[in-house]
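Agenda item 2: benzoic acid complex prediction
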Amino acid sequence: MTLNLGDLAPDFTAQTADGDLRFHEWLGDGWGVLFSHPADFTPVCTTELGAVARLHNEFAARDTKVAAVSVDPASSHRAWAADIAETQGAEVNFPLIADPDRHVATLYGMIHPRHDSTATVRSVFVIGPDKTVKLTLTYPASTGRHFGEILRVLDSLQLTAAHQLATPADWQPGQDVIITPAVSQQEAARRFPDHRAIKPYLRLTPQPDRA
Ligand code: BEZ
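Presented output:
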């Protein structure tokens, strides 16, 4: 199944290393990141899960819960979590979803058979408070993801949700942001008095504080 931006993120119940998880209920009213990795006890995946564990406070500051999934069983996840803590400088502090029957992987299109016939690729889904898909990313097994980029996208998405603002190429938090075309000139003058219009369609304004 291919999930497009705007689609409802499929709900599921799954085992994790620490018990059962009902996905939508677990997400609650906040944001979510569901990401898959190919396999437990593999080097790139070990560094990725360590990176996410170290960013726990950054995701929490963005009201965002994170869960990882692979086709390995819960017992394997539990054993591997000890290695991650030992080698990556952080305890795994988010759910490790076990998906041996590929239920979640199939719902989210995480297996790309011509890349790997059985293991999940490195998929990322950012899910908004309305449970719809806001971002998808797909990386090959051999490339570890940059989770700072996921945080940057969350910042951008949350600016859009709260203020109808967009972010330019290579934007970093603290830099000026873009007033979307959905905001009229009159409205822009009222809501963003410090903005500057380089062109009528290219209006920049200082980044507001987090909503
Ligand atoms: C890894 O995590 O290192 C990995 C997993 C599957 C294929 C290639 C690399």
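Discussion summary: The chain has seven helices and eleven strands.
Owner for follow-up: CH.
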